[in-house]
Specification:
The protein has three domains: 49 residues, no CATH class; 63 residues, Ribosomal Protein S8, Chain: A, domain 1, CATH 3.30.1370.10; 107 residues, OB fold (Dihydrolipoamide Acetyltransferase, E2P) (Beta Barrel). The protein has six helices and ten strands, in the order ββαβααββαβββββαα. Helix 3 packs antiparallel against helix 4. The relative contact order is 0.09.
Length: 241
Amino acid sequence: MDFKVAGTEDGITGFQMDIKIAGVSSEILTNALAQAKRGRFKILEIMNKTIAVPSSEISEYAPKILTMKIDVDKIGALIGPGGKNVKALCAMYSVEINTDDDGTVTIYGRNTKSSMDAKNAIKGIVEDPEIGLIYNGTVKRIMDFGAFIEILPGKEGLCHISKLSHRRLNTVSEVLHEGQEIPVKLLEIDKMGRLNLSYIDALDERGEKEPEPDPNAPKAPENHERPRYDDRQGDRGRRRG
């Protein structure tokens, strides 16, 4: 007789039996169930010593499945010609990405980081920055007149030096350094599609205190005039040239 019994401390949840004879007596079945109960309780006792309740979160190293919704008209941008874009994302982040016709995107990753990185990359492709929202951005470049901050993958905006603090700053480095992650509010998208950001507005809206300027930051030259807000045009023109 092959008799399997599964259950909890409260009772049996399932069983399966294979026999090669015509039937099983009630005495044999009673003894088998009693033996199975003793075995089940012993196994549960050992399991509870290791983990008594389910983990509130799955390990970051466990495979992770994420789903997100995108606009149907953005599906083509995500997939790319001949699947070029989605194939590149799968290779870059070691994930599998499935896209349904209704805009549901499912990401299968080998761990949490790979899945989240792929999701953020997809957001960078399909999401349009929205005026008035606060984004967690990364400082990419520091200039005399402000800092260029990435608010979505592949989408950068300028936070002018005047939008970094309520105080008058001589240099951007008094407040920011490259690679720093800060909240910024998207104030405007100008006619050229450039994003104008504000660090201090984001802090004010969140009720957070602005940091003190770094006393060890490089000093501005004497007679230094703080650049105007539109000075970035000249910088971008030089970089294009």
